[in-house]
Structures are given as C-alpha cells and as structure tokens.
Amino acid sequence: MNLTLKIWRQKGPQDKGRMVDYKVTDISEHMSFLEMMDVLNEGLVAKNEEPVAFDHDCREGICGACSLHINGEPHGPDRGITTCQLHMRMFNDGDTIHIEPWRAKAFPVIKDLVVDRTAFERIQQAGAYISVNTSGNTQDANSIPIPKKDADLSMDAAACIGCGACVASCKNSSAMLFVGAKVSQFALLPQGRVEAKERVMNMVKQMDEEGFGNCTNTGACEVECPKGISLENIARMNREYLKASI
Description:
Fumarate Reductase Iron-sulfur Protein, Chain B, domain 2
C-alpha cells in the first residue's frame, strides 16, 4: 500500500505544533500500525530528518503505552485492541491517515505523539493499593471465600491497562472509567474493603485536581476501551463515593 500520513509534530510542551504530511510506500497489509511508523522513521533518519516520537513498549496490547489518535479514534478503527495490535489491513491503498496525540488538558504533549500520562500514576498513588502489612502473617488467597461473580467482576476491572483511551474519547476528557476500574478492582474484594472509604475519596479528589472532566454517560469510553472496561465500574465508583461521603 501507498499511504499519506498527516502527523502532529510538536518539538516540545511549549512549542506550537502542526500537522505535517508524509508519504510511505510499499506498506504490507500484514504490518502492525507501529511497524508502519517504524518504516516511516527509518526513511526519515536515512534523510537526516527528525523521526516522529511516539510511545511504545511491549507491542503486545498489555502496557497501554501506544496511545495514538488515528483518524479521530483512540487506537484506530478496530475494536478491543491497542494501537500496536492494529494492522494495516484495516486501511486501503491510497488512504490518508490522520495521526495525533491524546487531546486532554491533563495529558500535556511532551513531543510529537507522546503525552505525559503521569496524572494516572498520581491517581493510583492516591489510593489504588492495599497498604496493610502482611509480612510474616500471610494467608493463602484460597482461604478467603469470595463469590465467583465478585471475583470475576474484580478481574474484569483489573484488566484496565491505563492507556488513556477513555479520556481521549470523552468529550469532557473524563477519567472516570479508569478511576472506576481501579476503585472497583478493590471494592469487590474483602481485602480492599478495609480502606474503601479513604481509597475512593482520595482517588476522586486527585482525579479532579489533575483537571479531568466529569462523566455525562455518553459511553464512548467503553466503546473505545481496548479491554472493554464496563461503564458499570463508574456506577460502582459513584456508589462507593456516596457511601464514603455519608
């Protein structure tokens, strides 16, 4: 395939970015999207031009680093996948592809397509953990009875990889699906109930301080989430917050 790429280029956080056009040729439909970006960068380096900066790590759909806005959709036109799992067979010869970074106040651009997502880390540091010291007094997990439904729902919430697609797809740049998943992950288990009140209050407070918007139940976050995190987690977080507030 021969493609035209319109890519956001921005030298640094304080610079004014712009869209730049690039041509790539002989792209195989079997390539992943990031492999196509590698081909582009190899060509740019060969011409002594600055390669396009973009995030990636595992390239297996696990780390969530490959956060790209492709033709107006987080992670591109496919469903239930991250950008590294998107293949070029989803596009046609001669297509023009628009590639941008996540657009959210809480995710400032570092360079080109790379954004600063440490806001998510600060939210997790505010409460997404169990702090009890079990050293020397550990229990076998199987000795604590947990209903299978609760265990399954907790595991579903824990599948969140923190990529930020929920924020990028939301008209309000809300992080409530992410925070809801992290709260639900612990709220459904007895080990997480001890600190449930402090957890939800602290995480929601940090989310607001980071500048994320509120949820208006549009549902775009669930649609674009590569792990299919359910909106039910937002509802559970709201219930947990209400109980903690009372």
